[in-house]
Amino acid sequence: MLWESLWRSVAKVWRIEQGLTNENTQIYTEQQHQQTQLFFSIFRIRYLNQKILLSFNNDYYLVKTISRLDRQYDHLCLLKSVNIPVVYDIQNIDHYHIYNAHKHKSLITHIIVSSHFFIHHYHNLLQESQPLPILFGITITDKEKDPVLLANELPPSVQYYKYTIGGTITKDHIPRLATVVHLSVGELDSGVVPNNVETLILRCPDYVVTNPSALVEFNYQSIPKSVKCLTLYRNFEKININLLPPNLRYLRLVNRNIQGDGFGSLKRLSMLCLDGEEMITRPNSVTQLKLFHVQKYDTAIQLPPNLYFLHIQKMYQDYSKVSQLPAPLPRNLKTLSLDIQTKLSPNPSNLKTLKLYNLGHPGDFYFHIFDQFPNLSKLCLSVKLKDSFSHMFDIVCPNYNNSKFPSTIKQVKFKSQNTGRPSESYHFINGKVYIETNLPLSRHKMSIIPS
C-alpha cells in the first residue's frame, strides 16, 4: 500500500513537470525547447532517484539539522504525503526554540527527545495551544543530565530508544513497541530487547573502548528473531552468522572472526577489519559488501559470487602503499568503490559504476581506466592533481573526443583535492557533454547551453 501511494505521488509529480514542459513549448523557440528538455533529462533522474526513491528504503526519515527543511523542502513534502515519519531530534530546549521558530516546522511529523527534555519540558509544551509532533523516540545519552526512565513512564508512540550511558538495563526499560534500539551497555541479557525490534545497534561502553583488544563472547540469545538490521560495534571473539536471526538482511560489525553462511537472507555486510586478522570467505548470499581495513598489509579476500556492490577502504594514513584488488572479482559486480592505492586491471565486463578516491597516480593513469572498463556508465574520481578533467581529456563543452570514452558513458564526477575548485559532474547526452558544477544553490551554474 505504501509503495502504491509512493508511485502515485511520483507519477503525479512527473505528470505535473511534463505538463509544464508541454505548456512552455507553445511559447519557446525550438532551441529553447531542446534546452528545457535537456535540463529535465538530467534533473528528473537525479532528483527522483537519488533524493527521493532511495530514502523509501527506510521506515522513517531523520532530519539531522533544521536547515534541511529549506534545502529539502520538496523531498520532505513528498515523504509526508505518503505518511513516512519525518523525524527531528530535539536534544535540548534551545533546539526546541529553533524548531518552533522555523517557517517549515509543519514538515516535522515526529520528534526524538532526551529523557531530560521529556521530564522537564515536554509535558509543559503539550499544554501550549499549538500541538507538538508525535513523540517518536527517547534518548538517554548524558550520565549527568538524562534520568533513566522505565518503559511504562513513556507514551506508547515511542518506537526509537537510545541508551548509551553504560551499566545494565532490563526489559522494563525499553518500550515493548520499539522497532529501533541503540544500546551501549556492559552486558545484554536474553529478553531485554523486545521481540518487535527490527534495527539493533550495540556499542562498546567507554570503559571497553579504552581496551579494544579485549574480546567479548557474544550472547546470541540476546538478539530477538525479529531483527533485520544489526550493528555490532564491539570486538566479539567470533560471530556465527548461522546463530543470528533468520531474516537478518544487514550486518555491520568490527570483525574478529565470522563463521557460517546464514540462511540466505543476509544481503548487506559492512566490516571493520582489525590488525592481524585474516579475511575469510564471506556468506554467499551477500550482494553488497563494505570492507574497512586497519591493517597495513594486504590480505586474501574471498568474495561472495553474487556480489554487485563492493567498497574497500584503508583506515590508516599510509596511502602510498599500493594494494592488490581481490581476484577474481565476481562476474556480476556492477559497482566498485575504492579508497586505496591500487593497480587496476581488466575486470568484470558488467561493471557499470567505478568510484576511485584519494588517488595520487600521474595523469597517464586515468587515460587507461576506460580501456580496462569498457562498459562503464558512471565514473567518480577524487584525485590529488591540479589538472581539471576537461583539460586532461581535451573537453571543450559541449564537444569531446568520443574515442577517449566508451559509448556507454553517462556521467563522470571529478574532484581535484589540490585545488579550490568545486567538484564537477560531466553528463554525456546524445553525443555532447555538459558540465554541472556542484556549488551551493545561490552560486550553482550548469553549462547546458554552449556559449
UniProtKB/TrEMBL annotation:
Protein's name in the database: FNIP repeat-containing protein
PANTHER family given in the database record: FNIP REPEAT-CONTAINING PROTEIN, FNIP REPEAT-CONTAINING PROTEIN-RELATED
SUPFAM superfamilies cross-referenced by the UniProt entry: L domain-like
Superkingdom of the organism of origin: Eukaryota
Tagged with keyword Cell inner membrane: no
Protein keywords: Repeat
Key word Ubl conjugation present: no
